[in-house]
């Protein structure tokens, strides 16, 4: 039986287990990336584990989310990250170099390599045939130290592309079409592997737009074959040696198949406030727009901004609308500037920003109250923009540019100016700042770790207790995101390296009183509906509840990365059915009837909870032996430390 491309890459890296759908395997990690919101914890954990040198081929540390350095705490984090990268052997991309996925793609992504990133959009690399998987910082820390990365073998879905995109339809619309058809939880534990004749009609860049936003489907990752178009891209990147041809076997067997006729795709837009709330742009055209933002790791590349510049060339942004272009990398900024496009954007009334994530997480360009913001980004969860009752739409750069011109949501096909779909031309070669901005390990400038006063120790949890009880501290609906648990806005993110302080913000957006109540209760439970913890990879969304004494999350289902973060920090991810969810009220006293240690260690798949001393229900614990060991030890950090100590004693 032929193999899928996913199977081939997994098999090439297999160090533990067998490749059977649903079974856990360990894979060797070639490359890692982290950024300024996740990297500080990852390096503190690397230090706490007593590791002394990065073992992977390439480890990257970026500073992209908080480039405005609004507070000394952030500047301290950046300085610490530079010192950690230099001390342990990672490359360091200075603040302003760009968003990690774009910068890594320009400089290091390579077909056939495994990339583990402390960021949920790590699958971007899949557009170039690399297997990129997002995870929590602790998994990145151990991977940097040479440990395998563990995952359940995902189902592989064949996304068969046919035909070619028509004018004004873009790669962004392809992934929006998948989100329109399916949902933000459809892709959990699945890999989307793109095949079919339509693949070769998409450029390497367009492929990375699609794989980037496969994350919004909940997917483990997405991957394209590496072919002639990939080869040409690597030549332009001046890294031809990194190219290898990769494809699934012609008779590969997939778990599922989706067919997308590219020719039928039209400009689409995701409406507030969930990425899968997608409609044709024409269905919402005419809505007045206050803000248009072009950028992000999805659509901030040179190839994304070029069409915007061409569409705005010699024209003007509508007076009622603010337009901001934030390139995803300084290389993109430099190329736009050298080729004259920045001047055209500026002349049209665009505010050209530095390369940053910035507004994507509400760090800058927070929308005004009761306003509409149209963005080329990937997430529009309510409040993520920094404005609680926001109205954020997601679309392609072309739709954003048309909207900026008219001041209302506009399908570019309806513009009443004489304009053709601009498309983009690849530059002959990519030029730019990366070389001067990236500090390679042999260029390290610091002498050891440099920690500012806000950088605290990594908190450790005690081993699992036999009796677990406490109140249902908070009852939440479906699709709670990690942005609800720990927002990434500026006032919160300055404490990413200081868990005691950060935990004060835990679930504040859902209930202002949560953190204080949890701390006081000294133990308790979270209750949630489906897809709990979707969105970002931030492990702080598990670490802070742990710090506040939460024992377990009782949810109808979990998002993949968040579930593994809960396990990594020793919190039980327990599944409940709908009837139990309906029956539990916030404030109810919950007790786990079983001896929790016995239940976890003996492999029990169900446990019993007793609520208010009145009724009982069965809850599920879907965890393998390795994960149960982590839970029993109080999480991956104490567990791994113990393993190292034991290895030392036996040596
Ligand atoms: C995001 O887009 O939400 C982030 C900020 O990039 C996160 C990372 C984090 O919060 O640390 C992600 O996507 O993983
Ligand atoms: Fe940055 Fe937004 Fe991409 Fe996250 S989704 S890495 S915040 S640009």
UniProtKB/TrEMBL annotation:
It comes from the Archaea. Keywords: Iron, Iron-sulfur, Lyase, Metal-binding. Residues 525-578 form the Aconitase A/isopropylmalate dehydratase small subunit swivel domain. It holds the Pfam family Aconitase_C. Its EC number is 4.2.1.3. InterPro entries: Acnase/IPM_dHydase_lsu_aba_1/3, Acoase/IPM_deHydtase_lsu_aba, Aconitase/3IPM_dehydase_swvl, Aconitase/IPM_isomerase, Aconitase_4Fe-4S_BS, Aconitase_4Fe-4S_dom, Aconitase_put, AconitaseA/IPMdHydase_ssu_swvl. One of its GO terms (molecular function) is metal ion binding. Residues 7-407 form the Aconitase/3-isopropylmalate dehydratase large subunit alpha/beta/alpha domain. SUPFAM superfamilies: Aconitase iron-sulfur domain, LeuD/IlvD-like. This is Aconitate hydratase. It comes from Haloplanus ruber.
């Amino acid at each position: 039986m032929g193999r899928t491309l996913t199977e081939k890459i997994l098999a090439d890296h297999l160090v533990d287990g067998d490749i059977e759908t649903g079974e856990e395997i360990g894979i060797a990690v070639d490359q890692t990336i982290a950024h300024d919101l996740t990297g500080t914890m990852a390096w503190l954990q690397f230090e706490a584990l007593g590791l002394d040198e990065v073992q992977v081929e390439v480890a990257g540390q970026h500073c992209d989310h908080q480039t405005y350095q609004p507070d000394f705490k952030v500047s301290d984090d950046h300085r610490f990250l530079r010192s950690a990268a230099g001390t342990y052997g990672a490359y360091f991309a200075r603040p302003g170099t760009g968003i990690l996925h774009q910068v890594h793609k320009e400089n290091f992504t390579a077909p056939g390599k495994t990339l583990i990133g402390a960021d949920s959009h790590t699958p971007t690399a899949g557009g170039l045939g690399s297997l990129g998987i997002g995870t929590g910082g602790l998994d990145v820390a151990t991977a940097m130290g040479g440990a395998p990365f563990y995952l359940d073998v995902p189902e592989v879905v064949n996304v068969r592309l046919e035909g070619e995109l028509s004018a004004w339809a873009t790669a962004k619309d392809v992934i929006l079409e998948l989100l329109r058809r399916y949902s933000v939880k459809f892709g959990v534990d699945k890999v989307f592997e793109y095949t079919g004749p339509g693949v070769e009609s998409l450029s390497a860049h367009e492929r990375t737009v699609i794989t980037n936003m496969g994350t919004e489907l909940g997917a483990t990752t997405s991957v394209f074959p590496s072919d002639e178009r990939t080869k040409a891209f690597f030549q332009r990147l001046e890294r031809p040696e990194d190219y290898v041809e990769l494809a699934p076997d012609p008779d590969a067997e997939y778990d599922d198949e989706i067919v997308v006729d590219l020719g039928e795709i039209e400009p689409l837009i995701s409406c507030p406030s969930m990425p899968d709330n997608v409609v044709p742009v024409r269905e919402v055209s005419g809505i007045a727009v206050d803000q248009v933002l072009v950028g992000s790791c999805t659509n901030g590349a040179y190839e994304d901004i070029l069409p915007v510049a061409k569409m705005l060339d010699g024209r003007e942004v509508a007076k009622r609308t603010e337009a901001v272009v934030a390139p995803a990398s300084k290389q993109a900024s430099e190329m736009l500037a050298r080729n004259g496009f920045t001047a055209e954007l500026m002349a049209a009334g665009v505010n050209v920003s530095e390369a940053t994530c910035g507004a994507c997480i509400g760090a800058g360009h927070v929308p005004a109250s009761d306003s509409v913001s149209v963005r080329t980004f990937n997430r529009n969860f309510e409040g993520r923009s920094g404005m609680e009752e926001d109205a954020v739409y997601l679309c392609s750069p072309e739709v954003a540019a048309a909207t900026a011109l008219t001041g209302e949501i506009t399908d570019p096909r309806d513009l009443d100016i004489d304009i053709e779909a601009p498309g983009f031309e690849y530059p002959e070669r990519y030029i730019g700042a990366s070389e001067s901005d990236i500090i390679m390990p042999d260029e390290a400038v610091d002498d050891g770790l440099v920690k500012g006063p806000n950088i605290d120790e990594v908190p450790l949890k005690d081993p699992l207790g036999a009796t677990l009880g406490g109140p249902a501290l908070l009852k939440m609906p479906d699709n709670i995101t990690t942005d609800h648990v720990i927002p990434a806005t500026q006032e919160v993110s300055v404490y990413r390296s200081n868990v005691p302080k950060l935990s004060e913000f835990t679930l504040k957006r859902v209930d202002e009183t949560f953190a204080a109540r949890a701390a006081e209760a000294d133990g308790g439970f979270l209750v949630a509906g489906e897809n709990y913890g979707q969105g970002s990879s931030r492990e702080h969304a598990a670490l802070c509840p742990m710090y506040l004494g939460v024992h377990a999350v009782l949810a109808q289902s979990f998002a993949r990365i968040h579930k593994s973060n809960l396990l990594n920090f020793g919190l039980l991810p327990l599944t409940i059915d709908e009837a139990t969810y309906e029956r539990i009220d916030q404030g109810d006293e919950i007790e786990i009837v079983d001896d929790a240690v016995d239940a976890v260690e003996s492999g029990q798949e169900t446990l019993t909870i007793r609520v208010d001393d009145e009724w009982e229900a069965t809850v599920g614990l879907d965890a393998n032996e390795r994960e149960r060991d982590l839970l029993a030890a109080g999480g991956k950090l104490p567990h791994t430390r113990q393993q190292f100590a034991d290895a030392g004693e036996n040596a």
